[in-house]
Amino acid sequence: MLLDLKDSHWLNRKYAAEVLGELKDVRAVRPLVDALTDEVGDVRQRAYDSLIKLGGPAVSLLVPLLVSEEDELRQSVTEIIRKIGKPAVEPLAMALAEADDRLKTTGDEGVGPDGLQAESQR
């Protein structure tokens, strides 16, 4: 089924996305996230539905897409996380904390305690 998500015929990709959601196999998360950008709307919709069914394990791979430049993708990801509900809270909090830590290590260079850039670096 995972290979069928890359099939050249859209009906096979649609069917694969639907079945993978029913199987609830976490190995399907990455390919289903990738299918959110499929050229065919029916395939994207089945991937969307299946990621909701997979629940919490999908969240960490969805979080980076919350800042996508593609409005439709960003909106879909937001809705998926919202519909996952409570099982999304912990993975979402962990992913956001990791992102925050990365920002702190790269963004604090040259910034003083008051948040202003040091005089010597202006």
How many β-strands, per DSSP?
0
CATH topology name, in short, is Leucine-rich Repeat Variant
> What integer value in Å does the Rg equal?
18 Å
Provide mean pLDDT, rounded. 86
CATH superfamily: Leucine-rich Repeat Variant
N-end to C-end Cα span: 56 Å
DSSP strand content: under 5%
List the total number of helices.
6
Q: Uncertain spans, ≥5 residues at pLDDT below 50? A: 110-122
Order of helices and strands: HHHHHH
Question: In words, what does this structure look like?
Answer:
With 122 residues, this protein is mainly alpha-helical. The chain has one domain (3-106): Leucine-rich Repeat Variant, CATH 1.25.10.10. Helices cover 59% and strands 0% of the residues. The protein is globular, with a radius of gyration of 18 Å.
Tell me briefly what this model is.
Helix content is 59%, strand content 0%.
Write the topology of this structure.
Blueprint: H1 10-23, H2 29-35, H3 41-54, H4 59-62, H5 71-84, H6 89-107
Helix pairs in contact: 1-3, 2-3, 3-5
Q: Keywords, please?
A:
about 120 residues, Leucine-rich Repeat Variant, 6 helices, disordered C terminus
